[in-house]
Amino acid sequence: MTSTQDQPELTSPDLETSNPATVQDRTERIRRRLERLIGIAATEGNALTALRNGDEIFPAMLTGIRSAEHTVDMMTFVYWKGDIAREFAQALAERARAGVRVRLLLDGFGSRLIEKDLLREMERAGVQVAWFRKPLALSPFKQNHRCHRKVLVVDEQTAFTGGVGIAEEWCGNARTEHEWRDTHVEVRGPAVDGVAAAFAQNWAECHDELFDARDRFVPHRPQGDAVVQVVRGSASFGWQDMQTLIRVMLESAEDRFRLATAYFSPDAYFVELLCATARRGVEVEILLPGPHTDKRVCQLAGQHYYEDLTACGVKIYQYQPTMMHAKVITVDGVAALVGSTNFNRRSLDHDEEIMLAVLEQKFTAILDSHFDEDVAAATLIQEGRWKRRSLLQRAREVAVVPIRRFL
Ligand SMILES: O=P(O)(O)OC[C@H](O)CO
């Protein structure tokens, strides 16, 4: 586990970020742009801990739940099967039995595989379980909008968000294809309120009780040096904050823009923005799943754009050891995004998402060092070789074009 207290070396000595004045200017500019365009103030005094893979993520979340004395709010897209699914259910049920208010919000599509006996056990123990838009009860338009946020808030003081789902696939340490690579973050400080608000926003749609006597509004003492803006993306038609967030990051980048994502199938606008960023001299690096993608159809939709992207100088890496599931962006070594948002149409156009915009050099350096390690286990797409890919591959890419807006 790597906390913001351990500061690795910046990974590229060429970045301008060694100059404190430059760092401050850039950080301030990104903060002001985000605040003006998204309309939510960033908060100071946050401490963030980057958690890499199930071996770090699950123990931290379970420790948080087991330590709860007042409230636990948890929301997830995926709640599937395996020992870890049982462990979470048992931890939540145990806290509910101890008198803690425990609320669990599950996406009606993403969590449809949850084992029914776990649901019964939690409900018997007093866990309030709510479902976000169960597909069969909805019009086709609403079905397409999913709650993709991953949030855990414990005692209003500690929050977690990131890419992880509650299932066997996320256990371990990305050693084999059965242990997915993911990034989550633990947050302490005032930004916890913003994460709690993301939960409350979806809870309000799914449960009769909007608030109760257990709600507390605790003061947050400064916990660290990170400035954090909590950005919520909401299912909508047309433009929404998540697109603005990514756009600000791309347009603010001066030296380097790095993206790790599980599902890369953006629309033409964001492909062009990536290309334009590379064309104006920013090093643009994208890290994507390789042979172990769990959704080949999404991969094909993204591969359709590899030729345009590499022609503009964008470096595309495909991660080899297992499914790359992290959702992380870093900019110029000074700012980072981490949360639930993929670089695809689902996350940018259709789903409820949460992303932390973190303005802190130390935390960004940690995520950059993880990116470096992942790139060392990835292969670079070579422009020339990619252009010579088979006709079959090309046909597959074209075949998914009609459905890529749903991916
Ligand atoms: O949507 P994500 O990024 O949370 O990933 C979960 C996938 O649907 C797993 O197949």
UniProtKB/TrEMBL annotation:
The species this protein belongs to is Streptomyces kaempferi
Q: Which Gene3D superfamilies match?
A: Endonuclease Chain A
Q: Which parts form a coiled-coil structure per UniProt? A: none
A Pfam family annotated for this chain is: PLDc_2
Q: What is the name of the protein in this document?
A: Phosphatidylserine/phosphatidylglycerophosphate/ cardiolipin synthase family protein
In what residue span(s) does the PLD phosphodiesterase domain sit? 143-170, 320-347
Q: Composition bias, kind Polar residues: at what positions?
A: 1-24
> Could you tell me which InterPro entries the record lists for this protein?
PLD-like_dom, PLipase_D/transphosphatidylase
The record's listing under CDD domains reads: PLDc_CLS_1, PLDc_ybhO_like_2
Q: PANTHER family given for it?
A: CARDIOLIPIN SYNTHASE, PHOSPHOLIPASE D
Residue ranges of the region described as Disordered = 1-26
